[in-house]
Amino acid sequence: MQDEEDELERRRRQVIESYKVVCICNKIRRGVIEKAIANGATTLDEIRRRTRAATGPCGAKRCGPVIAGMLRR
Ligand code: FES
User: Fold this and answer.
1) Domain ranges in the chain?
2) Span 21-36, mean pLDDT?
3) pLDDT at position 45, please?
């Protein structure tokens, strides 16, 4: 019973995390970037092409390091 509740809580947190905006300029959420990585994106350029993240006016100064961290994991 406790295991089921823990699993449910873990999934809830995952969903909440996936809705957090990573690229503020283009309003691209973490889940979109995670999906691109799961589908084979391995570089920041590939993430750019697939999601439009890191293509905004800040030049990826804000989201670039976060995306790079996601790619490393
Ligand atoms: S926050 Fe992603 S390009 Fe500016």
Assistant:
1) 2-72
2) 98
3) 97
Residue ranges of alpha helices (H) inside 1-73 are: 2-18, 30-38, 44-51, 64-72
- Ligand 1 midpoint to CA 27 (Å): 8
Q: 30, 67, 31: which is closest to 48 by C-alpha?
A: 67
Contact 41, 50 (CB under 8 A): yes
Distance 22 CA to ligand 1 centre (A): 8
2-72 CATH pick, 3.30.70, 1.10.260, 1.10.10, 2.30.30: 1.10.10
Q: Residue 1: is its pLDDT beyond 90? A: no
- Is residue 23 within 8 Å of 63, Cβ to Cβ? yes
